[in-house]
Amino acid sequence: MNDVDLDFSRAERTGMPEIVYGESKSPEQLHAIAQSHADRRASLLVTRCRPEQVEGLDGEYDAVARTFLKQYGAPTPAGGPVGVVYAGSSDAPVAREAIVTLRYLGCTALEFGDCGVAGIHRLLTHRERLAACRVLICLAGFEGALPSVLGGLMPQPIIAVPTSVGYGVAEGGRAALHAMLASCAPGIVVVNIDNGCGAAMAARRWLGSAS
User: Cα separations (Å) of 98 from 62, 95, 126, 169?
Assistant: First the structure.
């Protein structure tokens, strides 16, 4: 197809393979992309895709994360663990996107769900397991306070992900984004709204530079 030019050399340049953003692609485009990967026995991750876009393809569809994954053999281990901490089940789709991406990149992931500040005791019960993680990805919507709390408790690199969860002035994740950017916990880095994939790739870069 003339409108698809895949970057199979990206892993050699950057240490990480190309990930395909599927939201606006047609089923025909994604099938052609999958065939190109299959011809090379190259693993494929498609994010933000719907079941009908990948219907009939050989691989694994995660309905929560909205991801399609086809792996040829186990990825090269990239270290970890990376803790994926999220405030509530409404944040689970973005958290799952991060977890699937980490798996695709060869990183070990640990999931910590339902840890929002409205019930902070739930987060505190995980302190020992969180302390064992090399990097933390922290996701929250509404007022986006969870990364600041985590940043006041843990020493690892923390990647904050604002999610488009919340009423009214939450404004589709903008309130959480602004709160995370203005966090008083020093050293937290922030990715774009709902960008679980980008957070996972940032964690992978961090692990690579620390190895």
Answer: 12, 5, 19, 26
| Cα atoms in the Cβ-side hemisphere of radius 13 Å centred on 85 | 32
Q: Residues near 142 by Cβ (< 8 Å), separated by ≥ 6?
A: 87, 165, 166, 167, 170, 175, 176
Position 1 scores a pLDDT of 55
CA atoms of 129 and 83, how far apart (whole Å): 9
Residue 55 has a CB neighbour count (10 Å cut-off) of 11
| Mean pLDDT (the chain, rounded) | 94
* Contact predicate 123/85, CB 8 Å: yes
d(CA 141, CA 106): 28
Total-model pTM: 0.93
Residues 6+ apart with CB under 8 A from 202: 159, 189, 191
Measured CA distances, 115 to 56, 68, 127, 138 (Å):
37, 27, 11, 10
Burial class of 74 by CB neighbour count within 10 A (0 to 12, 13 to 18, 19+): exposed
Residue 15 in this model has a pLDDT that exceeds 90: no
Q: Which amino acid is at 63?
A: A
Query: What per-residue confidence (pLDDT) applies to 86?
Result: 97
The ranges assigned to domains in the chain are 10-70, 79-210
CATH 3.20.20.20 fits 79-210, yes or no: no
Peptide bond preceding 81: is omega within 30 degrees of 0, i.e. cis?
yes
